[in-house]
Amino acid sequence: MEKKIFEQMVKDAAASGNFLQKLLPFLKEHRKEKLPVIWIETNDSGDNNISLMNSTFPYLGQIFDDLIDLLYSNTMMAAQGKDAVFILEQAAKKYSGRYTLVVEGAVPVRDNGLYNIIYKTEQGDVTALEAVRELGKTAKYVVAAGTCASFGGPSAARPNITGSMSVQAVLPREVIRVSGCPINPDWLVGTLAHLLLYGRPELDDQGRPVLFYGFTIHRHCQRRSYFDTGNLADSLGDIRCMFSQGCMGPVTFADCPYRQWVDHINWPVKASTPCIGCTNPDFPDGSTPFFTPMPQKGPNELGPQTGGKNNE
After folding, report:
1. CA dihedral of 195, 196, 197, 201, whole degrees rounded to 10
2. CA torsion 303→305→309→311, rounded to 10°?
3. Which of 38, 174, 211, 301 has a C-alpha 20 to 30 A away from that of 234?
C-alpha cells in the first residue's frame, strides 16, 4: 500500500473506518510482522487505555491480532506482580532496538521521581522516571500517549507538587506526541500503523503527527459559518458558535470535527459544548477558567498556539 494512499485514507473521515478494516487483513495476508509495543503507565488517569479499548473499526481484538504485539501493559495483561515485571524485562531484552515504547502519563521528577513508583524488582522500587529513561534507551520509537505524556497535561497543572513533566522533558531523544485528554483511539492506532508500515510520520513543530494535528479545529468546525458571521451562542446548549462560551477551537490543532468520537458519531461542539483545547501544550492551565472567552484565559492571556501545517 502506497504511503500517500494510506495518508489520504486516514484523513478521509468517511473512509477511515473502512480503511482500517482493510489495513489489518492486508498486514495479515502479506505476513507483515506486528509492531512490538511496551506500554507503561506513569502519572496518569488511565483514560487513554480506556479510549483505546473503545476503538472500533478495528476493534481492540483485531488490533492485537494483526497490528501490534503488546508485550507489556499493566492494565491489559493478565500477569501481575513479579510475573509481569519478568515479562517486561525479558521483552525489553528480546526486542531491544525494535520495540515501540508507549508512555501514558506525565513523569514526576521531584525527589528523584519517588512520587510515582510503577513496579518493583529484586533491586528495589522502580520510579516512572527510571523506567522511562531505561526503556527509552533501547526503544526504536517512543510514543507519548495523551496530553500528560506529551506536554505534562493535568498531571503537571498548577501547583504541580510532584514536579511532573512530559516524557520529552526527561528523555533526550525524539518523542512522537499523540496528545489529547483522552486521545481519540484513531490517533494512536493510525500512528502505530504508520510506524509499522513506513516508520516515523511527519510531525508538526510540537512533535505531533501532522496526519491528525495538521489543522485547527476551527478550520473544519461545522459551526464555522456562525463564527464568520458573528452569530455566537448565548449559552451552553445553543446551536450557534461556541467561541463566546470559551471554545478553544481557533488555537487547538486536532481533527475532531470530522473524525469525531464514540464510534465517529459525535464530538463536543456538535454536542453544543465548547472545545477545551485538550491537545494543546498548555492544557489545562491555558484553558482555564473553562467556559470563559479566550482573552480572559490562562495565567498570561492565551497567545497564538503553534503547531499543525496551517495556523488558520
Report:
1. 0
2. -30
3. 301
Domains, the chain, ranges and CATH? 3-213 (3.40.50.700), 217-296 (4.10.480.10)
Residues 92, 32, 16, CA angle at the centre, nearest 5°?
Answer: 105
Mean pLDDT score across all residues of the chain: 89
Instruction: Note the pLDDT tens digit of each residue in 59-68.
Output: 888 889 889 9
Could you tell me the three cell numbers for 104? 501514558
Q: Which long-range contacts (CB under 8 A, 24 or more apart) does 221-229 make?
A: 221/249, 221/257, 221/269, 222/257, 222/269, 222/270, 223/269
Say what the pTM is. Answer: 0.91
* Grid coordinates given for 117: 513508583
Cα 195-1-188 angle, rounded to 5 deg: 30
